[in-house]
Structures are given as C-alpha cells and as structure tokens.
Amino acid sequence: MADLLHDQTSYEIRQKEIILAVAVEADRLPLHSSGLWFHDDVRNNFYYASYLFAAAADHSLELPFAREEAQRKADAVLLETVLLQNRQPGTKLYGHWPLGLSPVPREAAPHELPVEIMGSLMVWFCKRYSARFSAGLRVAFHTALGHIYRSGFFRKQVATFGHHEAKYTAAKLIFGQLFEDEELREDGRHSLEITLAHIRAKGMPEYGSLPWFWHWVQAFTCARELEEDSGTKSKLGEMLDFLWTERSQWYLQGAWAGAHSRGWPHDVPADGNLLHDYVQFGDFALPKEMPRTEYAGFLCYEAPEEVRNAALNRQLPAEVCRQTEKVVEGAGERQPQLHSYAYICKDYAAGGMWERVEEFDNEQLRWAFSLPVGAAEGVNRLYFFHPGQGYQPNDPRHQSPYMEVLYHQNTILSLFPVPQGEDSAIVGVLPPGEWVRQPKALFGYAGHVYFAVYLSHEYELLERKNYLEVTCAGMPGGVVVEALSAEQAAEQGIHRLEEFAAAAMRRAPEFSEGEILSAAYTAWCGKEHLQLSIGNEHAGIQALINGQPVSFEHYKV
Predict the structure, then answer these.
(1) Per the CB 3.0–4.6 Å rule, which of 72, 317, 366, 477 could disulfide with 345?
(2) Which has the closest alpha carbon to 426: 381, 466, 396?
(3) What kind and span of H or E run contains 477?
C-alpha cells in the first residue's frame, strides 16, 4: 500500500485510512434480518456501505476480507437503503427517506432530514462508482435521484443562514446540473451568493455548531467536486475558503476551542467528531472511535496554505475576538450581536461566548478550557454550568441562563445567580489526570497543563467513564479557573503538582454573596486584577480588568 500511495498527497492518504478503517468495521458488523446494519439512522447504512464498496473497488488497499464478497454485501446494503425512499408522487414527503428504521425499516415513515445531505452525496457516489454497481443498484440509484429532483425539497429561500439552507443551496446546484434545470441552478447560484455575503459581513449565526458545521463543509465540497461551470466552482471555492478559515480560528490539534451554539454527545463534553479535521490537518492520531463518519473519507477541499499553517502553528499565544449577528426570525434589523473570545496557545485554549443565547434544543456550550485531542486519556475539556432544560445526569450539556462570565487569556470567572426555587447545584467537567482536592478548590495536572479551580462552596466529586464530574450546591456563587502550561509553571518555579497546589491556594479569589454577587481574582502570569459582579437592577453586571470595563470595540466579524 505504501508504494501505491507514494505519489498521493497527505490528505488523500489520510482519507484512505478512514475508508479502510470504516470498511473493516462494516465488514465485521452483523446484518439485521432487514439486510441493514443500523436501524437508528438510515444514513449510517449509506455511509458504511459506501466505504465498504469503495474499499473493495480500490486495489491499492490491502483488505483483511474477501474483496468480491465485500462488494456484493455493500451493493446489497446500498440497494436496500435506496429502496426505503418514498417513491409515491403526491404523498407527504415524496422523495424522502425515513430517519429511524425500527422496528421494520420498510414500514418506517419518511422524514425530512436524511435527504438533505444524503441526496447530494448519492449523486457524488453514483458518478464515482456506478460503473461497478450491479444492474439493480444502478437502476435504483438513478430512479431515486429522479424522485429527489421531482420532490423539490431544496426549493426554499435563504432566511436564517443555517445548515439546512446551506444543504438546500448545494442541492440546487447539484440537481439543477444533473437534470439540466437552469432555473434551479440560477436559484442555487443566487442562494450561494447571498449566503456567502451574509456570513462574510455578519458571521455564522450557527457559531461552532457541531456536527452541523461539517454538513456545510460536505455539502459545498460535494457541489464543488461535481460542478462543471468554472465561475460557480470558483464561488464554491470561496465559500469553502471561508468555512475552513472559520474552523482554523478555533483550532487546536483537533479541539474546537471556545463557545458552541450546539453540541451533540459526540462533541460535548469531548471533541469526538474529528474525521474532517484529521483529513485536513493531520496533527493528531486517527481516533479509534468514529461516531459520525459521513463522507470525511471521500470529500476534502484543501484549505489555503496560510489557513492551515495558522491552525497548525500555535507556538505563540493568540487571542480570537469575534462578533457574530444572531438571526432571530421576526426581529427585523434589530438582531442580537454576540461576542466570542478564545485564548489559544500550544498546550491549551480557553474561551467562550459573552452572551447567553437560547439555541435549538438548548445545546449552547457557553465556555470551556480545551486540551489538544489525545492530550488527556478521556474528555479534553474543563467547564462548569448550571443545568437547564433538557439536562440529564451523565450528559453534561443543556445549560440554564443563570451564568455571567469574564474571559481574560488563561483565566475564566463565572458567576451563577440562580434564583430561589431553582435547583441550586452547578455541574463541572474535569479532564482525567492528577487532581488534588481542597474543600473549595481542585488543583490538577492533565495534558501537560496545570489547572486551578476555585469554587465559592464545597463540592462533591464523582468519577464518570471519561471525566470527573463536580457538583457544587448552594448557588448563588461562582467558579474561577486558571490554566498554566507546564512551561508557564516552570517559569514560576513550579515543577510538580504539589508545588502548584500550594502556590495556588495562596492565590484564592474572593467571592462575595448577598446584594452583590461577585468574584475577584489576580491572574497568575499577567498579574491583571479581574472582577466580575452582579448587582441589583441599577448596578447591573460589571466585568472589569484592572478596574476598566471589558470593551467589545476590537471584536470583528
């Protein structure tokens, strides 16, 4: 395999790693009596069968299974998946597939989501591999694509600049070209233009939205690879340059630093949906668990060299200060302005969103410290929050609105003005490592980084599968966290966790409760005095650095 891959680029080699890894897993998995591997999400059958088929067709890969038998199995799973489409014109969700398939896939009702991304990917896969399809699969694919086109699911106008509309835009271009529908293609070009103009001028309303950011990337990469018009292809390249520049801003060796408008369990508490980053940047090991394969092994747009270099070179600390306009339907021109911050150095990152925002399914991750992927044995984030709507034990997501923050480089202050009648406990996530416990503090070492965690109240510690969970009752109160790399600590004469803990105890912040809820702390390295307070309706919220209010004047889109 090494000789055959010698002339390929590094990202193509990494894609082949993914293809082989998923194909091996697909070959190993037993099929249900339905002829499918998965009943939870129809798309997983399409993805896994695509990889198994591609691996069987690629003679540069050394396979641990019989090639022809694998191709027949993949062909059969693809056929069974394609035939689950609603092929009855005039019925509800004509041209769509079901999402969940239990208990009987062929009786499952169609759902609006799968076709959004799968329909475009089917066009790509058919163009690439249809010569190797069985006759039945080739007919089924072409018939299904016709149903998708006639369903017109993508014939919607851009309004919120989110991932659904991004996929509609890509599909307009793809299906317009496939079926020679120039009116649809013109709609797609217009949608592409206004979407790119908006996110350039106002930022992405779905900031750090995972896994949906990767649907933006895949949809437009797919459209670009299929596009025959040079002008449209160039514009799709501009969109992908923007998306990868956006990703690189918050990148730290596989980790996505700072705030997230949404995060699924494979993205919070740990960065787990890593395959697109692995292909693009390649500065961490291919993870053993791949919770969302999608088409990372097939689709890659190589980001501009300066973008990749900026993401990969974190030797000098950098601050990222961005402004984003949230799109709220019905708000007119008075859309909320959001401000996100991150401090990123080679060993860790810290940051988040200054404002609390109600997001879909209440999935906002407000702030976090992040370690590079693989630096800790388990979860690579540290954060605290007050649980809100949708929260379940052992799923540290879904935050309440009761938190105010102050971000400054390697330090984050957070206060929790939890009103009476609400559960007073906050929850914290700590990465696995060495931890020294004090009644109202935790001092740890994980991934070559020291953490000082100060709480206003005593807490309980619970060991979860891949992280430590802190529960601290009695809010209102607060939490202050500061991080120091081993290198930064050595500059302070600290070389062991015990030394760090002893020094950190002498630097504990001052918390106050009552009419004014506040936290005050002096940062370790820069010696800045940080103060965050919440008073009555007249005093309001104050975030001060050396006595000066935090300013957003230097925050740019």
Answers:
(1) 317
(2) 396
(3) strand 477-485
Neighbour count for residue 354 (Cβ, 10 Å): 19
Average pLDDT of the chain, as a whole number: 96
Q: Tell me: the pLDDT tens digits for 333-357?
A: 788 999 999 999 999 999 999 999 9
User: What percent of the chain is predicted at pLDDT more than 90?
Assistant: 94
- Give the residues across from 320 on adjacent strands: 342
pLDDT tens-digit series, residues 201-239: 999 999 999 999 999 999 999 999 999 999 999 999 999
Residue spans of beta strands (DSSP E) within 307-410: 318-325, 337-344, 349-353, 367-370, 381-385, 404-408
Cα(548)–Cα(551) distance, integer angstroms: 9
CA–CA distance, 388 with 272 (Å, rounded to integer): 23
Predicted pLDDT at 9: 80
> CA-CA distances (angstroms) from residue 150 to 168, 176, 213, 231, 359?
14, 11, 27, 26, 33
Q: In this model, does residue 154 exceed pLDDT 70?
A: yes
Strand partners for 383: 429
Show the beta-strand stretches assigned E in 329-416. 337-344, 349-353, 367-370, 381-385, 404-408, 411-416
Residue with tokens 């016709």: 146
CA–CA gap between residue 33 and residue 238 (Å, rounded): 46
15: β partners = none
- Three-class secondary structure assignment of 403-462: CEEEEECCEEEEEECCCCCCCCCEEEEECCCEEEEECCEEEEEECCEEEEEEECCCCEEE
E runs forming strands in 70-133: 97-98, 110-111
Q: How confident is the model at residue 525 (pLDDT cuts 50, 70, 90)?
A: confident
Question: For residues 482 and 326, what is the distance between their CA atoms, to the nearest angstrom?
Answer: 30
- Kind plus residue range of the DSSP H or E element containing 198: helix 182-202
* Token pair listed for 314: 């974190």
C-alpha 19/C-alpha 13 separation (Å) is 10
Place of tokens 């690189």: 248
387-427 pLDDT per residue, tens: 999 999 999 999 999 999 999 999 999 999 999 999 999 99
